[in-house]
Amino acid sequence: MSPAAGGKRDPYDYPRDWEADVVLSDGGTVHLRPVVPSDADGLVALHGRLSDRTRYFRYFGAYPRIPPRDLERFSTVDHHDRVAFVALLGDDVVAVGRYERLDQGPSAEVAFVVDDKHQGRGLGSILLEHLAAAASECGLRRFVAEVLSENAAMVRVFRDAGYQVSRAIEEGVLHLEFDIDPTEESLAVARSREQAAEARSVHNLLHPGTVAVIGASADPTKVGHVAFANLLAADFAGAVYPVNPEHRSVRGVRAYPSVLDIPDPVDLALVAVPAEAVEAVLDACLAKGVKTLVIVSGGFAESGPLGLHAELRLVGEARAHGMRVVGPNALGVLNTAKDVRLNATLAPRLPKRGRTGFFCQSGALGTAILADAGSRGLGLSTFVSAGNRADVSGNDLLQYWETDPDTDLVLLYLESFGNPRKFARLARRLARSKPIVAVKSGRHAVRPQLAATSAEVDEASVQALFEQAGVVRVESLAQLFDTALVFAHQPLPAGPRIGIVGNSSAIGLLAADTARAEGLRLAFDPVDIGPQAGPDEFATAVREALDSPDTDALIAVFAPPVAIPGAAYARALREAVSEMKQSKPIVSTFLAAEGVPHELAVLSDDGVPTRGSIPSYSSPERAVNALARVVRYAAWRQRPQGTLVRPSGLHVEQAQEIVRELVPEDGSSTLLSDDDVVRLLSCYGVDVVPFRVAASESKAVAAAAELGYPVTLKAVDERLRGRPDFAGVRLDLVSEESVRVAYRDLCAVSGDEDVYVQQMAPKGLSCAIGLQDDPSFGTLVSFGLSGLVSTLLGDRAYRAVPLTDVDAATLIREPRTSPLLTGYRGDEPADLAALQDMVLRVAALAEDNPEVRSLTLDPILASPDGAFVANARLVVGAPPTRPDTGPRRLRHITPVDS
């Protein structure tokens, strides 16, 4: 919804998408929305709480009370030329930011005031971001501010925002001016603050000093009993308080009738009461000031519409009062750190301590996952099972793990993405320093709101999209753990050259065949020491293979001989590798074990397999497949990352005005007219070859003369133009008579008197660039050659927005038919730079205008002289509910999310 262009407006009628829940620098939350007249009492109360110093800084004087005339002006705005946001914590207004347009021009004066109690939490920078976004939407381009020179905190808000700020000082007052269009620096500042704030909110969740178990029960069959017992069994480092109104104690620990009766502050409340009682529990927790809620209770969104409604109301209330929520229907959270030892889950045992973080969306699978991790010898740092993922999501955990010193590896079990664009952005950044391995289930399901704009993406392309973000995608939990063991215990390989050593030629050949199928290179033929060789001979062969400069990684395949126990060979392998202190990864097939058997383990002080331990697999195929995923990830890390590129000559503001004009008021999707498509594409420097629509033979002749011969005639009906016999197109027409004949032929074929008359583009290979939605990655840019063969083979490459220059370059070279563009069989190469530039322009269009739901440029004629768009189709509609654009905000919760 866009505000009206000036004029009178109902002061209650503000754009609803301006509302937002935001995370502050200390990990707490507030609710942000435009001010309305009924906020007057809240503004007066805020003013009454301000210190004399804060009032002086804001109003340049004492200003002890707000006069009625000023109060009306502060609380009644038009949401266009005069805009104000209030930050709400519960029912209290804790901060206000506002701007007022100057002289009906493109500049506005901006100012803020923050409750003294909440200063230093980042509210000023949050308000500035949201005000700047609203101002841009209302046609403003510049902010000015008058700040007392001694008001260092407010000066810092403007100085550190990443804008180019000009300063002038007169009589102790700083005059600041800056353009509000986002810059690379301002975006980087916002993303850095987002990461720090969301990471802090998760840190608060995983490092509580006190935990209340609401619904703690003395009945061993009750969930509340299990949750409380698990906290005690883990020897939690903080204080645990059972809440049970019917018992004085639970398991010998004094119980409290309500969380409000607990004498100390409560950091984390673990809620294990029936769904119908959770609302009352929430009210008590809000009154107590609990920071985080972990709800293991079911009966919410997963149970139907009524449960969904209760869940949305629950999360909205919690966020508005500064609280984050895990769940509902969650298994819980845990932290194995020595100084925490938190098991706030329904799983019976705290896992062994390790350096792997695990996010699981499924509560039902959580217990099995934790048990499997333990049996495989994989220690965990932290674990979060988010259940319905009503608030805290996998993206929050990615933010936390990026800077968590106790986590080196991230594992994800995902059923859906709350904000796919943000996931791709965060994953790409995190994966540069820490591997991410993900199981993505339900990948063939498409959300209803994407059905009209989502096309099926083949599995190879899905894999490429994950690899673009640096995510190692696996098909099952078994593969997840297979791969995690290599990452957790072994170094990354320098390349794809694999050595194979074993005592069975058959197993060695099986490993070699699998390696070739996975795209690995054999450094040498598999080494077979024979079934009679002893442990020392085996260790010697391993040392020689690792010493070889041709080897980047090693696979030890082993079939236990009858005479000597396999454990002796395993110990010899571990000792040989340990003595060499080498940096090449090793996987093995020992003892039919899945994980790290004791004989291959290097143990930490508390008896957990750690770096240097050698993973073992029950088959050589699984060993090779796990290693191959690690090799591909290492290659991704070594490749140039590229830089996000914005081509020159983009007219973003003009494009956004066009889009707002064309999106139907009801948000439905609509196919744009040819003229509107041309208008919008031209804002991004994508020109369509000139054309006219002719409704008669004489008009077709006139259009051809106007455009200049040669011309092309096309039927308006695209289904005809796509026929194998090209019955809907007449090419290279060079005379008036040929146009007349072609016009009559096309009308006869199509039954329509309208035809396209188009200037003939330079001859070239027909290519296609497209935009479409994907439930895993948001907006995708696609590229491939046009034609039935490419379509039937699915020969199209995909990349997720935003694109780097490396992404664009590899995209146009990835289809199997792409050699045709580079001079295959001696033809003159097409202008690949022009295609790459066009890809980047299309990506910029998608990034700036989430209302663009799909786009097809087909055909694009790629020639040595450039790339020429001969036809374009574009659909606009309401933007996705969770774009990764604009000022910082928490994911908006809608029924679709669940």
UniProtKB/TrEMBL annotation:
Native organism taxonomy: Bacteria, Bacillati, Actinomycetota, Actinomycetes, Pseudonocardiales
Region of interest (Disordered), residue spans: 879-898
Keywords: ATP-binding, Nucleotide-binding
Pfam family, one: ATP-grasp_5
SUPFAM superfamilies hit by this protein: Acyl-CoA N-acyltransferases (Nat), Glutathione synthetase ATP-binding domain-like, NAD(P)-binding Rossmann-fold domains, Succinyl-CoA synthetase domains
Superkingdom: Bacteria
Cited PANTHER family: COA BINDING DOMAIN CONTAINING PROTEIN, PEPTIDYL-LYSINE N-ACETYLTRANSFERASE PATZ
Protein name: GNAT family N-acetyltransferase
InterPro entries: Acyl_CoA_acyltransferase (IPR016181), ATP-grasp (IPR011761), ATP_grasp_subdomain_1 (IPR013815), CoA-bd (IPR003781), GNAT_dom (IPR000182), NAD(P)-bd_dom_sf (IPR036291), Succ_CoA_lig_flav_dom (IPR032875), Succinyl-CoA_synth-like (IPR016102)
Domain N-acetyltransferase, residue spans: 30-185
Residue span, ATP-grasp domain: 678-723
